[in-house]
TrEMBL record:
<keyword id="KW-0472">Membrane</keyword>
<keyword id="KW-1133">Transmembrane helix</keyword>
<dbReference type="InterPro" id="IPR022584">
    <property type="entry name" value="DUF2937"/>
</dbReference>
<dbReference type="Pfam" id="PF11157">
    <property type="entry name" value="DUF2937"/>
</dbReference>
<protein>
    <submittedName>
        <fullName>DUF2937 family protein</fullName>
    </submittedName>
</protein>
<keyword id="KW-0812">Transmembrane</keyword>
<feature type="transmembrane region" description="Helical">
    <location>
        <begin position="131"/>
        <end position="151"/>
    </location>
</feature>
């Protein structure tokens, strides 16, 4: 009975992976839009002063003011993050359901994953991927329980008998 409960719990937990990944993908698009807007504003401001984006950032980094230097670093980090998120979005759009889980696991954005987790709403898996994830989790739970039972049996067998 305990083994069945563990299988159900682990299957239920892993069945949520596709849903979490889907909610993450939705947030991914929003994060890309927000970063693009920030960078577009920065580029407009730079152009209004006759600077390219790279020149404006270089000017910020060369500033004596630590705040202005930090803003230059923030803009570089925003550009890098935007590039990484766009690459991930492109990979996720062309991948199959199982591949999406692999892409997510391989390179998720920590800030975006944390925001997704904070607002995550569990869902019943009604897709093939959801059922497959639940099955894998159930099998993992079964395997863990079997290993624990085997270890428990070994411990009992090794106890010396009293004469």
């Amino acid at each position: 009975m305990l083994m069945l409960i563990v299988m159900l719990m682990s299957g239920t937990a892993t069945s949520q992976l596709p849903e979490f990944s889907q909610q993450y993908r939705q947030r991914l698009g929003g994060a890309i839009d927000a970063l693009e807007e920030i960078l577009a504003d920065f580029n407009r401001d730079a152009a209004a002063h006759g600077l390219s984006s790279a020149e404006a950032i270089a000017r910020q980094k060369a500033s004596e003011d630590p705040f202005i230097q930090a803003r230059g670093n923030s803009m570089i980090n925003a550009e890098i993050r935007l590039s990484r998120l766009k690459q991930q979005q492109s990979e996720l759009e062309t991948a199959g359901p199982v591949q999406r889980l692999m892409i997510f696991a391989r390179g998720f954005d920590p800030q975006l994953a944390q925001a997704t987790a904070e607002d995550y709403e569990p869902a019943v898996p009604v897709t093939a991927t959801g059922f497959a994830a639940a099955g894998i989790g159930a099998l993992a739970g079964l395997l863990v329980m079997r290993i624990l039972v085997a270890i428990g049996r070994l411990g009992r067998r090794r106890k010396p008998r009293n004469p």
